[in-house]
Design brief:
Length: 204
């Protein structure tokens, strides 16, 4: 366990939050039909994919949140690497969701898929209760960005909200895809009532 006499361990990362849309509603349906195992199998497939990709791309699968994950990408990551990974993950989810889960739903929710939030910044790393943990503004902002995708968007699935600093530092090629500059409300982010960010729709 980290103690007060230890030096601060600070590292720069891209924090990527992603979430499964309508997961609570899906679980309700699966519970009614006694097929919760379908969601478990979907999550196992996603975890295996993330583990394999992390070894290739060098990111850390930091935390599972019950209906999504937190991923930490190294500072040298560029947009030409991150976005194709998010699209590959989204395609895997779409295929596995339709194969493993949809057959057991009495009716499919109107919105299904993944949503993403991305920020960059210093994270403080330490050990708590035998586990590696991180604290930092980038985690808070990425989480709020992911949640804010649904604001003013009837089809939030397979879209990413980048903070402007993250989008700039990822060094996307000129005229990369179609991006939209938007402003979103981020709860509990000091001094940021309305936050400038960049929205990108993934190819799935």
């Amino acid at each position: 366990m980290t103690v007060q006499s230890d030096n601060l361990d600070i590292q720069e990362n891209y924090a990527v939050f992603f979430d499964i849309c309508s997961s609570s509603l899906v679980l309700e349906h699966l519970m009614l039909t006694d097929h919760l195992k379908a969601m478990r199998n979907l999550l196992i497939c996603m975890k295996r994919f993330l583990d394999e990709e992390s070894r290739t791309l060098g990111f850390e699968v930091y935390k599972f949140l019950g209906d999504g994950w937190v991923l930490l990408f190294p500072k040298q990551t560029d947009g030409g690497t991150l976005v194709p990974f998010l699209e590959k993950l989204s395609c895997l989810f779409e295929a596995k969701f339709r194969k493993l889960v949809v057959p057991y739903l009495e009716s499919s929710p109107r919105i299904t898929g993944l949503t993403f939030g991305v920020d960059v910044g210093p994270l403080m790393r330490f050990v708590m209760l035998g586990r590696k943990e991180y604290v930092g503004r980038a985690l808070n902002v990425a989480s709020r960005l992911q949640s804010a995708i649904k604001e003013k968007d009837e089809k939030p699935q397979y879209k990413v909200l980048f903070s402007k600093p993250a989008y700039k530092e990822l060094k996307f090629p000129a005229n990369y895809r179609r991006i939209v500059y938007v402003r979103r409300t981020l709860r509990n982010i000091l001094g940021e009532n309305r936050y400038d960010c960049v929205k990108l729709t993934l190819k799935v």
